[in-house]
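User: Can you help me understand a structure? I only have the sequence.
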Amino acid sequence: MKTKFILFAITLFSVAFSAHAQTEKAQVLAKSKQVVGALKNKNVKTLASYVHPTKGVRFSPYGSIDTEKDLTFRRKDVLKLYALPAYVWGQADGSGDDIKLNFAGYYKKFVYDKDFARAPEVGYNRIVKQGNTIVNLTEAYPKAKFVEYHFPGTRKYDGMDWRSLRLVFEKSGKNWYLVGISHDQWTI
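Assistant: Let's start by predicting it. Here is the structure, written out as tokens:
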């Protein structure tokens, strides 16, 4: 009798945990869909509403996230992204030159260089594709969930023209908030 009760309790816990994980996944995917739509439409007001209220959102031009140097913006600053001056967003792969751009330039090259709202592959909490850059997303955001929007490379360029956009979310209270926007592509 005691063994049956323990097995019943374990089964009940497993079902409840699985349901929680599915609900969590659905919440993150729904938020991600809204965020990718805001990015597509360059709607900073909607984008800002999803940004973490205390951590802000970090922009990373490549899959390797630099928690010290990648630029982070608070909600109020996200509302003004297109009016802000040029910043150094990191170093360009290959040359090491500074990526010095205003947000419009950065957006065009390192955020929405493909129509990610129509990406043919979407991964939840998994890296769909990576090149030779170390992708440290789970180390940089240990409590986060992420959604990757991916365009595979073409035959013309031997697959090296692939692109990914990863949207990273952390839970605060009962809500999931955007804490990272990480772009990735084939690098030298």
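Now, to help you interpret it: The domain at 2-185 is CATH 3.10.450 (Nuclear Transport Factor 2; Chain: A,). The chain has one domain: 2-185. Let me know which part you'd like to focus on.
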